[in-house]
Design a protein that fits this description.
The protein is an alpha/beta fold. Helix content is 48%, strand content 16%. α4 runs parallel beside α12.
Length: 231
């Protein structure tokens, strides 16, 4: 049994392994929210409400260190990998709906999933760029096709807000994935293993995309709060 705790007013489940997380999800119809320093530092009331009524998990070294500071052991679970663990477990028994990224990348994602997971049931898919009326059309399609699991890759908090709107109309397990489709299709490269194992993926992304510097200040502020026991 995994007992939730709170970091900076946000509910988080300190999973110790991917296997424990997979077991925990059995039969659940909620939103999975990857929590990192940026989200934990967020003062977005709408996002915070979504986090606290769903399943937040540690997808960042900052969240893991903050939990350990509280004496709670947790493992970093990378959403960019874990969504594929979910598919691997359920592709023979459950159905999926895929949303996000560009039209080209979503086509590539669906094609690769069909090659990698024989017999996968994808009820529908679409890119992550919405025009007026597109959300309503998507809701109608979800209600019609009734997928068991819905993946949404748009970036935060946009994807969490969309999933919250969708789950109110169609109950399923939802997961926000940020740029995971781009990584899966090879459009973008994930940080090398050394960066992943040392918790420095944020540094690799900053080196590759210097414009992220303003976002990385959240990580610095978060570590300062950990050091001075403000979490």
């Amino acid at each position: 049994m995994v007992k939730e705790t709170y970091l900076m007013g946000k509910k988080i489940f300190p999973f110790e392994s991917k296997e424990q997380f997979l077991f925990f999800l059995e039969g659940r119809k909620q939103i999975l929210v990857a929590l990192n320093a940026e989200k934990l530092n967020s003062n977005n009331a709408e996002l915070n409400e979504i986090i606290n009524k769903n399943i937040g998990y540690a997808d960042g070294i900052g969240a893991v260190l903050a939990l350990r500071r509280k004496g709670i052991h947790a493992t970093k679970i990378a959403g960019a990998e874990f969504w594929l663990d979910i598919i691997s477990k359920y592709h023979g028994s459950k159905s999926f709906y895929i949303i996000g990224s560009t039209p080209e990348v979503i086509q590539q994602t669906v094609g690769k999933l069909k090659m990698d997971f024989n017999g996968i049931k994808i009820k529908g898919y679409r890119d992550g760029f919405f025009k007026e009326g597109d959300q309503e059309k998507l809701i109608d399609d979800l209600v019609l096709t009734k997928p068991d699991i819905v993946f949404v890759a748009q970036g935060s908090p946009r994807q969490e807000i969309l999933m919250n709107n969708l789950i109110n109309q169609h109950k399923a397990l939802y997961m926000g994935l940020g740029g995971s489709f781009d990584v899966y299709t090879g459009t973008k490269k994930r940080a090398p293993i050394l960066f992943q194992k040392t918790g420095l993926e944020w540094l690799y992304r900053l080196i590759k995309e210097p414009t992220r510097i303003s976002r990385q200040t959240s990580l610095l502020k978060f570590f300062i709060k950990i050091i001075f026991g403000k979490i």
